[in-house]
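Service request form, structural biology core

Requester: graduate student, group of Dr. S.
Request type: structure prediction, single chain
Budget code: on file
Notes: please return the result as structure tokens.

Sequence provided:
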Amino acid sequence: MLVLTRKLNEKIQISDDIEIQVLSVDGDQVKLGISAPKDVDIHRHEVYQSILEANNQAAKTINLKNFFKKD
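Core staff response, request fulfilled:
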């Protein structure tokens, strides 16, 4: 894992088209602004994990339906 230190209003550049800026720091809470192309999905980690879990469950359900499908 790369660890970087940034101050208020400083930025991090990821490739040519993703930029992360520290917008505010209040105690242990940090607000980040992220500029990225619209085709790049950005989620909090816990939301992304929930999406993956829901997709996995849906895939299992679809596979079971196809397995029991009668032609």
